[in-house]
Amino acid sequence: MDQSDDKKLRLRVRFDYRGESKQGRIFSRWKEGEEIAEEIREQRAILLRNIPIQGVRLEDINTNGEVYIVTDEASGREIAYAPVEFTLETDSIEDVIPFLLRDEFRKVDVLSPSEILLDKYQVERIIYKMNEELRTYRLYLEKRLNSK
Is residue 56 part of a domain? Predict the structure, then answer.
């Protein structure tokens, strides 16, 4: 990607943070799940605001989205999700790949530029970065499963 300011990549990314109520409180289950989702959203937004991410500049974080509830098909339980939208700027698509591969990722809007041209080396680096992130995530999952 061209390095001039008019070619910086600006994105609006949406994450939905999951909040599940604890068992045993049938009557207040929805509200409790909503509260948990909101707490997680606020904690993660604070982390995003305060921890610098190499190659990425956060312009705005919006935590005002309405919490919504979905029934999990596998368990039949109701799960609350609290959305967060943030706008970021980066010089390279590679720098945002770790964000776009997170479980809580839901949507991305490219705000600018309207056209992105990549040479073959940039495409190769993007593919490599995606593979590296997926490998790291797989190892993380294997460690979690083996520790149980």
Answer: yes
Give the Å distances, CA to CA, from 125 to 10, 35, 92, 96, 138.
19, 40, 10, 13, 20
| Tokens matching residue 1 | 């990607």
Render pLDDT for 71-101 as a digit per residue (tens, 0 to 9): 888 888 889 999 999 999 998 888 888 888 8
> How many domains is the chain built from?
1
Report how far residue 129's alpha carbon sits from residue 114's, in angstroms, rounded to the nearest whole number.
23
Task: Supply the pTM of this predicted model.
Answer: 0.78
DSSP assignment letter at 67: P
- The CATH code of the domain that includes 51 is 3.30.70
Which pLDDT score is estimated for 78? 86
**Lowest-confidence segment of 1-10, 16-25, 27-36, 48-57 by average pLDDT:** 1-10
The domain of 45 spans 5-117
Number of helices (H), then strands (E), belonging to the chain: the values are: 3, 5
Does 78 fall in a domain? yes
